[in-house]
Each structure stands twice: as C-alpha cells, then as structure tokens.
Amino acid sequence: MTTNNNVNEIQQSNTVYNLEFFKTAQYWNNEHGAGVKNDGSHDFRHWMVDVDGYNGRIPENPDKPFAEQLAEYLADNLGYKQDYLAIMDDGRLSFNIIENADGEPVPNGGEDMGTQLYLCDYDCHIKVTYEFTPNRERLAELLPNAEH
To answer: What's the half-sphere exposure (Cβ side, CA atoms, 13 Å) at 83?
Structure first.
C-alpha cells in the first residue's frame, strides 16, 4: 500500500545502484580461442569463481551519468577498461575479460607470455534502491510496540 508518507519518503530519498557480480572462467588460448589450454589440448570445463569482493554500490550523482560512473567502477575494481557491455534479456549486464591465473586482466587483450590464460565471463545484476532516514513518526508506524 502506498501512502503519502511513502511517496514523500521516496521523493526525499537518495538513489543507490547496488551491483552484484558473478563470474565463470574457462581456458583460453590466443591461437585457438575458448576451451583450449596453453598447450593446445581441449578442455571445455567452466568454473564459477567467487567475486563477492567486487560487489558494490554507486550512489546516484546528478552531475555524472550512470554509464560513466559504472565505467569508472569497472575500471577501478575489475580492471575492465572496455566500452562493450551487453544487456541480456533478463536485465543483467554481461562482459568478458581475458585474465591470467591470478585473476588479473591481461594487457592488450591476451598477451600470454607463455602462461595459461582464461576467458572470464562476468554478469552484473543492478538493483536500484531508494534510501532515506525515517523520522520519529515513521519509526513509530514501523514499530508500533516500541516506546515513544
């Protein structure tokens, strides 16, 4: 149920974009592509990789478009400095990065220097939230049994 209080709270709230990341990895070979190890043998396994440390929040900034803020976040936190992002049918963002075994982006899109590389597919789910600090009256509505 939407009340006048709820509408006022939303109008006075701060918008925050919450980012949640998921990552899968597979072998990458510069000559033969995905699913090929550095030695040329085929291995099409995929691994889920924990990337909870990349999850974050971007407060809305009316002076900077969200696309620019997101690009800065991806560059600063994941080392992703490309312009390409795909918007999937279910509303998530998707992009990929060629990385070394330490999970670091490889310069120039895949100079392997003799080491095993991995094609890492990232998904980013974005949730928009509206944050506000409730006043005394609103807290009393939320907690009717509290002393006030």
So the answer is: 0
Closest CA to 130 of 1, 44, 47, 10: 10
In the block, tokens 């992009």 appear at 95
| Model pLDDT, residue 13 | 82
Plot region of 40 (φ>0 → left; ψ -120 to 50 → alpha; else → beta): left
When computed from its CA atoms, the radius of gyration of the chain, rounded to whole angstroms, is 21
Which residues are bridge partners to 34 per DSSP?
28
Q: What is the pTM of this model?
A: 0.81
Q: Residue 148: which pLDDT band, with cuts at 50, 70 and 90?
A: confident
The position carrying tokens 């002393």 is: 147
